[in-house]
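Before any further analysis, we paired sequence with structure tokens, yielding the entry below:
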Amino acid sequence: MVLWRKGLTLGLSSDEKSPVVGSSSDDATSADVQRLEFDARRTPQPGDLTLEQDTAGGLGRHLGLFSTTFLIIGRIIGTGIFSTPATITSSVGSVGAALMLWVLGLLLSFAGLCVWLELGCMFPRSGGEKVYLEAAYRQPRFLATVVFSTQAIFLGFTASGCIIFAENILIAANHNVTEWGERGIALAVIIAVTCIHTFTPNLGVKLMNILGVIKIVVLVFIVITGWVVLGGKVHKIPDPGASFRNSFAGSSSSGYEYATALFKVLNSYAGWSNAAYVLNEVRRPVRTLKVAGPLGLGICGVLYLLANVAFFAAATPGEISSSGNTVATYFFGRVFGAAAERALSVLVALSAFGNVLTVTFIVIVAIPFGDAYDFILDLEGYPSSVIYVFVGIGLFILRWRSPQVPRPFKAWWPVPVFFLLGQGFLLVAPFLRPPGGKGDTSLPYWLYPVVGIAVLACGVLYWFGWRVLLPRAGRFDYAERQMTLKDGTVLTVFDRKS
């Protein structure tokens, strides 16, 4: 017997479950629920469950506007802004080009958010991309679901967070260890997080909330410090405007280098779609999603741009590029000295620890440790872009196939087109040979897109084996039925029948 969960729950915290439709709250009135159910009767259903079945069970609609906005902000602000500016600057070669990519990444993220808002308001249920792919690509049955699930299982990890934790905690301890020592620390983080979520899940949720606040406080402090530096109040930085003169000098002309840098920018913005995964928990989901999404991403975008300005005010592009994955701690060392650098390293390490929600061992052990962080970011980004392209195309498929469906939010058509063009560039450019044939790691420059495609291909092969080969070889078929758990959650169960 095979169980098929109504919504993908990978990568979600232990409290992100599905609520009962019509659960009591001040904002989620029975009229709201009735309206959603009425709209659902006019909307093509993703998967086999109705809206009422799909949103049954769990904790209830307990997330309001503030909580949903904070959920997005807490997910976006991770290790990326504290670590990736160095690699991004090194790839594109100049301050101007780096800042331009941060702006472009923000625009692409907002374009993607508009696509998700339209689809999320059409299908106000948990699951995000899984739901939208199921709605747009109904045949072959379950193919879109399996491919997306495979990508989430293999690449929905935060091994990059483990690496950043290891590097920053060593800076804080003012101690150098071997490469395998750093690997050991990274693996210890994975084991610790797994044990916390397994044996003390409530503690895990509290820790994530506390560490989420720490991340935001650290980022705001960096921004304020940058203003102080630009105001000429820090004597250690005699010329804070030096990096911004002739800011595009030395910019790269390689499409490959811009693509790999843009992957890292977009990874830093990742999380703008976080509310879509838990819409079953959100009170008045359509209205809340339309406000919380732009608000959360907008706040993070402003903070990110100001943080980058702060980094370049305190150090030259060359110094930023050579700081490696610890650019934020380097910034504090330049401004406040070695003691502050070690103190911030602890906070950045805690931020990384808070982002480690899922488990992976392979990448940390197999990839050269100096290359692991950049390779992981690129590897995570490429299959995600493939998924995003299919979601963006699916938006237009649904507009053509079901024009009568109510759309509480509808994106202006050039916005999803811009999003698709950006993602298309990210799919093609990594195969363009970079200068000297070398990417941003010691590994072959074409390796991460090939591995990303291979992961998606594994999903296709798994679906083919499950839906085609096994039934033919065993001379059976699948009989589907629905099962309700004690908390009201509805599952689709697959039984074998001869």
About this structure: Confidence is low (pLDDT under 50) at residues 1-30, 357-361, 363-370. The CA atoms of residues 41 and 50 lie 9 Å apart. The longest helix spans residues 369-401. The beta strands are 2-5, 477-484, 490-497.
